[in-house]
Amino acid sequence: MDARSQGLGRPREPDIDQRLLVATRELLAEVGYARLTVDAVAGRAGAGKAAIYRRYASRTELIYAALFADPALLHRADVVDTGSLAGDLSAEAADLLALFGDPVAQAAVPGLLVDLAADSAFAERARDVYVGANLADYAEYLRRERARRGVHRLGPGDDPRLLHAVLAGTVYAWVGMLRWEPQADLAERLGVLVAAGVTAGPATPIPDELR
């Protein structure tokens, strides 16, 4: 199996991995998405192009990893547990606001989306790795809320994909497309709003055979 098919990047030498991602972000800030080259990243990071292509299948994948594959933003459910679905989703919204509100991301995402649309194989890998980790977090937040309420299903909105799409889509529209300044309480309001939508419909009781 090609190592790249296992996920975004190849975890070989953490120091080089980090240098490549830092160099990519620096160059995005300096020259922009369209003018960034793999050669420039290799030179800035003090690494060979082969080191990049051992980890990333393409320039698009390298840029995606530099913007979105931060381990600190993945598997957040391991560290985020506020005691409520609204609180957990507010924490996720705050992360997304920081991510999409970053000037480097704001400048790069439009071009990245165009390239993602043209590369279905990479788009699928990105969905499996980055989005897949996020979906696992949302699934855990929902599981906790079901346990707190003692139900089998919270309602029609009990769907990790729906939570991810609503939160990420709303945040990107706010700060990435419309470029509205996020108010200090925006993350909290989004978490409350989305949690209310999840629990608005009739819940499904836990079946007797699962009790």
Automatic annotation (TrEMBL):
One Gene Ontology molecular-function label: transcription cis-regulatory region binding
The HTH tetR-type domain, residue ranges: 14-74
Domain of life: Bacteria
PROSITE patterns per the UniProt record, alphabetical: HTH_TETR_2
InterPro entries (alphabetical): Homeodomain-like_sf, HTH-type_TetR-like_transc_reg, HTH_TetR, Tet_transcr_reg_TetR-rel_C_sf, TetR_C
UniProt keywords, alphabetically: DNA-binding, Transcription, Transcription regulation
Record-annotated DNA-binding residue ranges: 37-56
Protein name: Transcriptional regulator, AcrR family
Source organism (scientific name): uncultured Actinomycetospora sp
